[in-house]
Design a protein that fits this description.
The complex is a heterodimer of chains A (313) and B (267).
Chain A (H helix, E strand, L loop, with lengths): L1 H17 L6 H27 L7 H18 L4 H23 L4 H21 L1 H4 L5 E2 L4 E2 L2 E2 L4 H23 L1 H11 L1 H6 L4 H27 L1 E2 L6 H14 L6 H16 L5 H15 L3 H17 L1
Antiparallel strand pairs in A: 1-4, 2-3
Helix pairs in contact in A: 2-7, 2-10, 2-11, 2-12, 3-4, 3-10, 4-5, 4-10, 7-8, 8-10, 11-12, 11-14
Chain B lengths: L8 E12 L2 E12 L3 E5 L6 H9 L6 E6 L2 E2 L5 H7 L1 E4 L11 H12 L14 H14 L12 H14 L4 E5 L7 H17 L4 E4 L3 H7 L2 E6 L2 E6 L1 H5 L2 H9 L2 H8 L6
Parallel strand pairs in B: 3-8, 3-9, 6-7, 7-8
Antiparallel strand pairs in B: 1-2, 1-4, 4-5, 9-10
Helix pairs in contact in B: 3-4, 3-5, 4-5, 5-6
Classes of the chains: A mainly alpha (313), B alpha/beta (267).
Chain lengths: 313, 267
Amino acid sequence: MKRFNNVSLSIALLLLVTGPAYFSDFAIYLFTYGLIMAIAGLAFNVMLGYTGLMSFGHGMFIGAGAYTVALMMKYTGIHSFEVLMPMGIVISGALAAFVGLFCTRQIEIYFAMLTLAFGEILYALCSKFYALTGGTDGIQVKGMSLFGYVLKGGAEFYFFVLGLFVVCTLAMWMICKSPFGTAIQAARDNPTRLGYLGLVVMKYRLIAFIISGAFTGLAGVLLVSLTGHASPELFQVLTSISIVLMVILGGHTSFLGPVVGAIVFVFLQSWLQPLFFWQFFLGVAIILLVMFLPGGVLGGIMTWVRKAVAKLS
Amino acid sequence: MGEKSRSQVILETARLTKHFGEVRAVDGVDMQISQGEVLSIVGPNGAGKTTLLKVLSGGHSIDTGTMSFIGRDVSHLGLIQRARMGIVYSFQIPALFENLNALDSISLTLFTREHKTIVFFPTTKRFPGIRQEAQKILKMFNVPETTVTSELPHGQRKLLDVAIAFALKPRLLLLDEPTSGVSTEEKGQVMDTIMPIIRQRNTTAVIVEHDMEIVTRYSHRIIVMDQGKVLVQGSPQEVMNNEKVKEVLLGHAPSVRNEMATPSPGR
C-alpha cells in the first residue's frame, strides 16, 4: 500500500513536471489555476479535516492576498514577487489572527457563520472604498518579476506555481504530522479532554486558523498574478464556497484530497462552462459524491485500491 | 488520619461544597490525601462521588469551602491550571481522541507534558524519546499501538483513558470508575493492569469505584460517601466492619449488594 502510494505520487509529480511539453496553452493555464487552488484547498483542509472547523470565509484570505499585491503595485509600484509574496502571506496571516480571535471561540455552524460574515464585511468594504480599491471595477495586476526577471505567462509561470505548490504541500504535510498537528486533531476529536490535559483548545484553533489563512493568502497572491485582475468578489462567499466544494469533491479525510479536488474542479468547470447552466451539473456531481463517495474522489480511489491490494495479496 | 500524619499530605479540603440547584451533591467534605496513597471513594448511586472527583479536578467549580494542593490554595484555579499542577482526571466514560491511534494519543500527552505541543517540525515519528516512552506506557497498559481508538474494545478504551492521564506523570491521579461498563470477568484484568503501575510509580490516586471487592483489595484507605457527606473513613477493614457502612451500602443500594455478594470469578 505504501509502495503504491509512493509510485502514484511519483507518476503524478512527473506528469506535472513534464506537462508543459505536451499540454496545450489552455491546459497549462488550467493546471496553473488548479495548483493555486490546490494550495488554498490544502490550507482550508488544515481547518476542516484536521482542526474540525468548517470555514465559509476562506475567500477573504484569497482576497487579502490578491489585494495586497494589487494595492502595493498600484501605490508603491513594487512588482517583485520576492516582496509581494511575503507581504501577502503576512497580511493574510494577520487578518486570520484578528478574525480568528472572534471565530475560534465558536465551533460548528457558529464558526462557519462568523467566518462567512467577516468575508462579506470585507467584500462590502472593498467594493465601497472606491477611491482606494477601485470599487467593483477592481485593480489590474501585471508585469510581475522575480529577482528582476519578468515572468512570462504560460509555462514559466506554471513552473513557478508548481515549485511553490510543492513547497507548500510539504510544509503543510509537516505541520499536520508534527506535534502541533496531533494537538489540533485531538482538539477536533475531543476538545473537552484536551482541557483536562491542561491545554487551552482555543489557542490551537487560532494558530491553525492563522496558518490556514496565511497559505490561502499565498494562493490569493498567485491567483491574481495568473488572472491579472483583483476584484472584490474574491473576498465573497462564492469564492469561499468553491474552495469548500473542491475539498469535499477531492475528500477532506485524506491529506492530498484537496489537491485532487481542486484540479478536478477546475477542469470540470472549464468543460461544463459552455453549457450555460453548468452549476446544475456541478450540483448533481456534488450530491452524488456526498451520497455515494463521502470520502471524496481520492477517498474513493484509495478505498478501491485498498480492496484490490487485499484481493491480490 | 492520625496514622497517616507521618507521611506528607499533598491535598487537603475543608468544608468543600458543590450544589446543583437544590441538590447538595458535595456537602461539606473534609478530606486529606498523602503522597503515594491510594484512596477509594465508595457510596450508593447519587452519593456525590463523581461530583467530588470533578470538583477536585477543577472540572466543576467549588461553591464554598477550600482546597489546597502541595501547600497552595487552589480553590479558585480552573481545570487547566490544576491539570498543569499535576491533578489529572480520568473519565468514567472514556474521553478519547477517536480518530487517532493509541500511540498518537499517548504521544500527544507526552508532548503536552514536555511543553512541545506548539512545535511544527519535525513529524511526531522523529521524536524517538517520546515515541519510545509512549510505546512503553502502552505496553504496560496492554493497549495495541496502531488500532484507531474508535475501534478498540471497551476494556481497552478504559485502559487507554487511564493511560492518557497516567502519561502526564500526575502528582494526583483521579480515576472515575475505572471498571464501569466492563464485564465482570474483565474487571479484575483492568484493575490488575492499572493498580500495579500505580503502586510501582508510587502515584497518589483517588479512585471512585462501585465494586467493594476491588476497593478493599487495592486501597490504603476508603472514604464512604452518602448524600454528599463523608459518612466514614478509614482502612479497608475498619470501613467494612462499620455498622453504618453496612447499612448504607447494603440498605439502599442493591447494585452494590449484588457486587459484594458475588465476588468476581477467576480469582
